[in-house]
TrEMBL record:
Gene3D superfamilies: Aldolase class I. SUPFAM superfamilies: FMN-linked oxidoreductases. Keywords: Flavoprotein, FMN, NADP, Oxidoreductase. Its cofactor is FMN. The lineage of its organism: Eukaryota, Fungi, Dikarya, Ascomycota, Pezizomycotina. Pfam families: Oxidored_FMN. PROSITE patterns: PROKAR_LIPOPROTEIN (PS51257). The keyword Transmembrane does not apply. This is NADH:flavin oxidoreductase/NADH oxidase N-terminal domain-containing protein. It comes from the Eukaryota. Residues 85-289 form the NADH:flavin oxidoreductase/NADH oxidase N-terminal domain. One of its GO terms (molecular function) is NADPH dehydrogenase activity. It comes from Pseudomassariella vexata.
């Protein structure tokens, strides 16, 4: 992990993936790059129904069997519902499994705090276990964790409450959700919709102390149809932002946001409080710097790099060029 920090900006690059968070402070946009996925327990990751699949660049929908280092006999989900025709049918999680998940969660949070993290994001999107529980597409349980909306969101709410009980007061709690299953093309399919997401987010913000909702979408069901386009998920964030306004909870958007100007426009039009970026960072690890130049914003860069560009500790590329 490589972390650079100052009073105005904090930059963390963590092993596999990074997001950029861009906010407006005192009329000055500022850029923060942070890792958002800290406390996902290994047990959860190993057991979800999208588990034991092959690498997505080999096949996005195929299972990994024992001979290809999968764990097909240890895949758990809320219900025995397939992710795709080729993946493993999960075993329905028992109440004991759910209790174990919660204990593992608390242990993971304690480890994260011990490691000194500044923020924890609960990953409840993209078909991971918590999303599988709250979506009626993957959850057909008949106990307290299935059926009604209240029952389906129960595990996520319990997870957040457990997290809140572990962290110091005011510690930033973020949640990543999928605000749609992208199954609208077939209204006959049970699915989690934007209306459900608005209801869930109001609950998270008003009653469960969530400070930031990171609005993403999909990843739950291989039948999803995503119409990708610049900023394609921003309308989801915008609707949720309106719903939680006045609670103090901030809302972020992600998905095909590829320029500083585009990101800045989203903030200025008050469609989101923050912009998160994935793939553009893969193409350009110095994206914060590039966007700062594009937006003519001063940022700090590591002195080890900055001196080569004639910078002082404050980045004034254009002014000192
Ligand atoms: C190679 C790759 C790996 C990703 N890994 C994760 C992940 O581990 N967790 C996650 O929540 N999203 C993951 N995503 C999704 C991104 O966080 C992001 O939501 C998505 O790529 C859309 O944003 P973008 O258009 O800026 O890339 C990944 C995306 C890519 C391309």
């Amino acid at each position: 992990m490589n972390v650079a920090r100052s009073d105005r900006q904090s930059v963390c690059h963590v092993v596999s993936f990074c997001s950029c968070l861009l906010r407006h402070t005192n009329q000055q946009p500022w850029l923060v790059c942070c890792w958002l996925e800290l406390a996902r327990p290994i047990g959860c990751r190993a057991a979800i129904r999208k588990a034991s699949t092959v690498a997505p660049w080999v096949d996005r929908k195929a299972a990994a069997r024992d001979y290809s280092e999968g764990w097909p006999s240890n895949v758990i989900g809320p219900s025995p519902e397939l992710y795709s025709a080729a993946t493993i049918t999960p075993r329905e999680a028992t109440l004991q499994d759910i209790e174990k998940f919660k204990q593992d969660w608390v242990s993971a949070v304690r480890r994260a705090l011990k490691a000194g993290v500044d923020v924890i994001e609960v990953h409840a999107a993209h078909g991971y276990l918590l999303h599988e529980f709250y979506s009626p597409s993957s959850n057909h349980r008949t106990d307290a964790y299935g059926g009604s909306f209240t029952n389906r969101v129960r595990l996520l709410i319990e997870t957040i409450d457990l997290l809140r009980a572990e962290v110091p007061s005011g510690f930033p709690i973020m949640v990543r959700i999928s605000a749609t299953d992208y199954l609208e093309w077939d209204p006959s399919l049970p699915q989690f919709t934007l209306d459900d997401a608005v209801r869930l987010c109001k609950l998270l913000a008003e009653e469960h102390g969530v400070h930031f909702i990171d609005v993403s979408g999909g990843g739950l069901d291989a039948r999803q149809k995503i119409k990708s386009a610049p900023g394609y998920q921003t309308p989801l964030a915008e609707a949720i932002r309106k719903a939680v306004q006045g609670t103090g909870c901030l809302v972020g958007t992600v998905g095909e946001i590829t320029s500083g100007t585009q990101a800045q426009g989203i903030l200025e039009e008050e469609k989101a409080d923050a912009v998160l970026v994935g793939r553009a960072f893969l193409k350009n690890p110095s994206l914060v710097w590039s966007w700062a130049d594009e937006l003519d914003v001063d940022i700090h860069v590591a002195s080890q790099y900055g001196w080569g560009f004639g910078m002082t500790r404050t980045h004034r590329h254009k002014r000192h060029g």
